[in-house]
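The instructor's notes for this session suggest beginning with a concrete chain rather than abstract definitions. Hand out the sequence below and ask the class to guess, before any prediction is shown, which regions might be ordered.
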Amino acid sequence: MNESEVIEICRESIIVMLQLVGPIMIAGLVVGIVVSMIQTVTSIQEQSLTFIPKMLVVFGVTIWLLPFMLATLNTFTQHLTDRIVQIGTNG
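After discussion, reveal the predicted structure:
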């Protein structure tokens, strides 16, 4: 295994991580902005008001995207183990 293969594996790992976490982070960001705008308009500055909707949306999006996340992680893991086997047979 040379440096380019290691860099390729790291690049693929980062892409998979962004695919798994990106939608959840974007959903939390959108809810945070909406709740912040509502707080600004109504002058309500309660800290728990931002926490509870974000927590519920992040939990809901995670449950909703769980099949996609598991399929993506399964594909990546199979690809990675195939590379490990290939390295073992070549070395």
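Then share the key points. Residues 3-90 form one domain. The chain has a mean pLDDT of 90.
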